[in-house]
Amino acid sequence: MENILIVEDDIAFAKMLETFLTKKGYKITHTSSIKNSTQLLNNQRFDLCLLDYRLPDGTALDFLQARRDLKASLPVIIMTAFSDVRTVVKSMKMGAAEYITKPVNPEELMMVLKQISEQEKTPSKTKEKKSKSAQFVQGKSHHAQKLQDFIDLVAPTDISVIIQGESGTGKEYVAMKIHQQSKRAKKPFIPIDCGVLSKELAAGELFGYVKGAFTGALINRTGQFEKASGGTLFLDEIGNLSYDVQIKLLRALQEKTIQPLGSDSLIDVDIRLIVATNDSLTTLVKNGVFREDLYHRLNEFKIEVPPLRDRVEDMELFINHFIDEANKDLQRDVQSLAEEAMQVFREYEWPGNLRELRNTIRRMVLLTQGKIAEADKLPSEMFSHIRIASSAPSGSNLKAIQAETEKEHIIKVLESVQGNKSKAARILNIDRKTLYNKLERYDLT
Ligand SMILES: Nc1ncnc2c1ncn2[C@@H]1O[C@H](COP(=O)(O)OP(=O)(O)OP(=O)(O)O)[C@@H](O)[C@H]1O
C-alpha cells in the first residue's frame, strides 16, 4: 500500500498529514474537493483514501457513491469530527473501511493503516480468517440471552435469516456465529458487503461470469454463490442490491441453481443465506426499492441485534475483550479503565455501537503506557455527548429532569397496574420493547 489520496479541505491539517505520511514512505496526492477527488480516482490508481467527512462540495457519502459508480475498490478511511460520528457510521454501510476521529493521532492512523493493509493482502480470505479466529462475546443481559437463544434455535437449520440492527451492533458477528454453530461450519462463510457493489458489478460478483460476457470480462470468474456452496453466504446491506439483482437472487434461492453472466449452463449451488440490514426491509418494500417476493423468501427468521445503549450490562465484558485485543495488537498492558471513564461509557449513547466502543478503547489503550486507561484519553467531546448522567444534580440539567419525570411516571403507572408491563405499555402509549428498554435504563428491572 503506497499511494494514498488525501481528500481534506483543511489545508494545514492536510499538509501535516502529507509530511508525516511521506516520512513513513507513502506517496501522497492531496485534493480538497469531491469533484477533484473523483477526477483523480478516474485517472489514477490509489491504494487507499483518507477522506474528510465534510467537504466544501459534499460529504464522504458523495465520494463513496462516486467510488461505487467508478467501480473503484480502494479502501476509504473517513476522518471525522467527533460530533459527526453518528452520521459517519452511516458511511460504513456505503463501504468505508474504517473511521477515525479528529484530532487524528499519528500513532492511531498508523495502526489503522497497518490493519487495512493486512486485510488488503488477503482480500478474499480476510473475513473467512476472521470467522475462524474472532471471539464472539456473548454478554449476560437479557438482550444477549435472547440473542443467543435465537442463534441456538436457528443455527442447526438451513432457513434464511434476516439480521436487523443499527450499524456496528455486531450483525456480521451474529451471522458468523450462526454459521459456526451450524452443520455447515467446516465449509466457507463468505461475507459480501452489498454496500460497495456497483449495480453492474453485483451480478458478476454473486453469480460469476464467463469470458466476454461484458466489456472487461477478460477471464471466466466464479461467483460467490458457487464459492460458498456447502457453506453460508452472508449478504450485508442487502437493501443496496438493485432490483435486477434481486430478481436473480430470488431465482437462485428458489431453484438452487445459478447461471453465470454470459453462460448457458446452470450450476447447482447449496448455500444457506443470511442477510443483514440497517434499514427496515419492510419499509424498503413499502417504498418499492425492495422486492416483496424476495423479502418473503428471506424472511424465514428475523433476528434483531440490540444497540449497545440498550445492553449496558454487557458493556464491561465487551470493554475487557476489546482491551485484551488492543493490548495484543499494540503491545500494551492495560488492565482496566478508570472509574470516571467507565461512568462516561455507561452514559454515552454509542451511535456507532460495538464498532465505536472497540475504536474508542483501541485509542485509549494506544495512548496509555500504564495499567489503567484514564478518562483524559477519551475525546473531550464525548463528555458533552453523554446522556442523562445518573449523578447529575436534578434541577440543573434538563435531560436529567426529563428522565427523572419519566422514571417517576413509569413507576406510578406500573404500580397502578400491579406491575403488568403490557398494560403499562398500553397506558404509556409505547410498545413493550420500548418499555423494557426504559426499565433497564432506569434500573427498574
Ligand atoms: N459478539 C461480539 N463479540 C466480540 N466483538 C464483537 C461482537 N459483535 C461485534 N463485535 C465487534 O464490533 C465490530 C462491528 O461488528 P460487525 O461488523 O459484526 O457489525 P455490523 O452490525 O455487521 O456492522 P455494519 O452495520 O457496519 O455492517 C466487529 O469488528 C467486532 O470488533
From TrEMBL:
Signal peptide from the UniProt entry: none
Entry-linked CDD domains: AAA, REC
Region (Disordered): 118-141
Lineage of origin: Bacteria, Pseudomonadati, Bacteroidota, Bacteroidia, Marinilabiliales
GO molecular-function terms, A-Z: ATP binding; sequence-specific DNA binding
InterPro entries listed in its UniProt record: AAA+_ATPase (IPR003593), AAA_lid_NorR (IPR058031), CheY-like_superfamily (IPR011006), Homeodomain-like_sf (IPR009057), HTH_Fis (IPR002197), P-loop_NTPase (IPR027417), Sig_transdc_resp-reg_receiver (IPR001789), Sigma_54_int (IPR002078)
4-aspartylphosphate modification, residue list: D52
SUPFAM superfamilies according to UniProt: CheY-like, Homeodomain-like, P-loop containing nucleoside triphosphate hydrolases
Identification of the protein by name: Two-component system response regulator HydG
Protein keywords: ATP-binding, Coiled coil, DNA-binding, Nucleotide-binding, Phosphoprotein, Transcription, Transcription regulation
Alphabetical GO biological process terms: phosphorelay signal transduction system; regulation of DNA-templated transcription
Coiled coil: 320-347
Residue span(s) of domain Response regulatory: 3-117
Residues of the Sigma-54 factor interaction domain: 137-366
Species: Natronoflexus pectinivorans
Pfam families assigned: AAA_lid_14, HTH_8, Response_reg, Sigma54_activat
